[in-house]
Amino acid sequence: MSKSSLKKYISIQKKVDDAQQEADRAEGAFNEIKKQLKESFGCSGLKAAKGKLVELSKAMEKAKGEFAKAAKVFEEAWHGKI
Question: What pLDDT, in 10s, does the model give residues 52-65?
C-alpha cells in the first residue's frame, strides 16, 4: 500500500470512527429521552407521547381559561379596595 493510500485509509477510518461515536451518542440520548417519557408520563413511544402532548395542551388551555375567569372575579371583587 502506498503512503498516499495509507493516509487516505487512515483519514477515512477516522471519519468512520467519528461517525460511529456520534451515532452511539445520539442513540444513548434517544434512549434516555424514551426512558424519561416513560417515567414522567407513562409514554412508551412517539405516538403515545404525541397523544399525551395533545392531552396536556388541552388541560393547560382549560387551566388558563379558568385562571383568567378567577382573576376577573377577584379584580371585580377587590377593585379599589386594596
Answer: 999 999 999 999 99
Q: What is the mean pLDDT of residues 23-29?
A: 98
77: Cβ contacts below 8 Å, ≥ 6 apart:
none
Cβ within 8 Å of residue 1, ≥6 positions away: 9
CA distances from 48 to 31, 37, 69 (A): 16, 9, 32
| Alpha-carbon gap, residue 28 to 20, rounded angstroms | 12
Q: Which pTM value belongs to this model? A: 0.62
d(CA 62, CA 72): 15
